[in-house]
Design goal:
This protein is of the alpha+beta class. It contains 8 helices and 4 strands; from the N terminus they run αααβαββααβαα. A 4-stranded antiparallel β-sheet has the order 1-4-3-2, sandwiched between helices. It is rod-shaped. The model has no long low-confidence stretch (mean pLDDT about 85).
C-alpha cells in the first residue's frame, strides 16, 4: 500500500511539472493575445469606418455635382426655380434627410453660419470645424475622430466655397428669387462673395465601441484557448503517464526488488527509445548480478 502511494506521488510530481509548464504557456499566450486583439480590432474598426466614410463623402459630392452640372444649368436659364434642383446645398440636405431615415446611425450635415435655412446653423463642434477652414493655413479637408452630439464618429469635413452660380440665390436679398425670400426672408443667407468659405459638409461614421468589441473578442479567444489547452492538458497527462511515468515507475520498482535481493524478476520493455534503453541496461545489470551471485555461491 505504501509503495503504491509512493508511486502515485512520484508520478504526480512529474505530471505537475508538465502541467505547470503548460499553464504558464497558456497564461503567456492569453496575455499576449489580449493586446494583440485590441490592436487588430482597432485597425479593423478604423479601416471599416474609413471605407464607409469614403462612400458617404462620395455620395454627397456626387449629389452636389449633379445639381451644379446637370439640373441648375437646365432650369435656371428658363427662370424655373425649385430649390432642390438648383441648390446643391438643398439637394444634399434633402438626400441626407432621406438617408437618415433609413440609416439614422450616420451623421450628415450641411452647415453654414450664414444660412438661408436656420436649420443649417452649426452647433459648437461644427462651428469649430467651419472656423478651421477659414484659417490662413486651412486644410482642403478634415478627416479625424471626434465627438458630435455626444457620439464618437470618424468625421470627414470639406469646406463649401461660394461660386458664381451661388450668387443667384445668395448675392443680395433684392436680387434673389422671390421664392427664396418668400420662404426664408431676407435677413440671412446673403452677402456671399465668390471664393468665400460659406459652409461645410460634415459627414460622420459611427465608431464601434472599441472596448466592448475588444472585450467580446478577447473572451471568445480566451474561451477557445481554454478549451484547446484543456484538451492538451488531458492529452499530455495521459501521454506522459502512459509513455513515461508508468514505465519509469516500473523500472524503479524493479530496482527496489533487486535491492531487496529478488534477482529473478526480469525487466522487458519492447520500446525503441531512451526508456527502452534504460530498461535494457537495467536488465543487463540484473543478469550480471545473478551471474556474480552464482559464482560466489559456487566458490563456497
Amino acid at each position: 500500500m505504501t509503495d503504491a502511494v509512493s508511486k502515485d506521488k512520484k508520478g504526480s510530481r512529474l505530471t505537475k511539472k508538465f502541467n505547470r509548464v503548460l499553464f504558464f504557456l497558456y497564461l503567456a499566450i492569453v496575455l499576449v493575445s489580449i493586446p494583440g486583439t485590441y490592436f487588430v480590432t482597432q485597425q479593423q474598426i478604423q479601416e471599416q469606418a474609413n471605407r464607409e466614410l469614403s462612400l458617404l463623402v462620395d455620395m454627397i459630392r456626387s449629389v452636389r455635382n449633379v445639381v451644379r452640372e446637370e439640373t441648375r444649368p437646365h432650369f435656371l436659364p428658363k427662370g424655373e426655380f425649385f430649390p432642390a434642383v438648383v441648390s446643391s446645398t438643398v439637394m444634399a440636405k434633402t438626400v441626407a434627410s432621406k438617408f437618415a431615415v433609413l440609416r439614422p446611425e450616420y451623421y450628415i450635415r450641411i452647415v453654414s453660419d450664414n444660412p438661408l435655412n436656420q436649420e443649417n446653423m452649426p452647433d459648437a463642434a461644427e462651428a469649430g470645424i467651419l472656423n478651421r477652414f477659414r484659417q490662413p493655413d486651412r486644410p482642403d479637408k478634415i478627416v479625424e475622430s471626434g465627438t458630435l452630439r455626444n457620439q464618437t464618429y470618424l468625421i470627414s469635413a470639406a469646406p463649401a466655397t461660394a461660386k458664381e452660380g451661388c450668387l443667384v440665390c445668395h448675392g443680395t436679398a433684392a436680387s434673389a428669387p422671390t421664392q427664396i425670400t418668400a420662404k426664408y426672408g431676407g435677413d440671412s443667407g446673403f452677402g456671399y462673395g465668390v471664393g468665400d468659405v460659406v459652409g461645410a459638409s460634415v459627414v460622420g461614421v459611427p465608431m464601434a465601441n472599441l472596448n466592448e468589441l475588444v472585450l467580446t473578442r478577447s473572451l471568445i479567444i480566451v474561451g477557445i484557448l481554454t478549451l484547446l489547452f484543456a484538451f492538451i492538458f488531458a492529452f499530455i497527462n495521459t501521454l506522459v503517464k502512459r509513455s513515461i511515468i508508468t514505465p519509469i515507475l516500473s523500472i524503479s520498482e524493479a530496482a527496489k526488488s533487486v535491492s531487496r535481493g529478488k534477482l529473478n524478476e526480469s525487466i522487458s520493455m519492447d520500446r525503441d527509445d531512451e526508456i527502452g534503453e534504460l530498461a535494457y541496461s537495467f536488465e543487463l545489470m540484473r543478469r550480471s548480478l545473478v551471474a556474480i551471485v552464482k559464482k560466489m555461491r559456487a566458490a563456497k
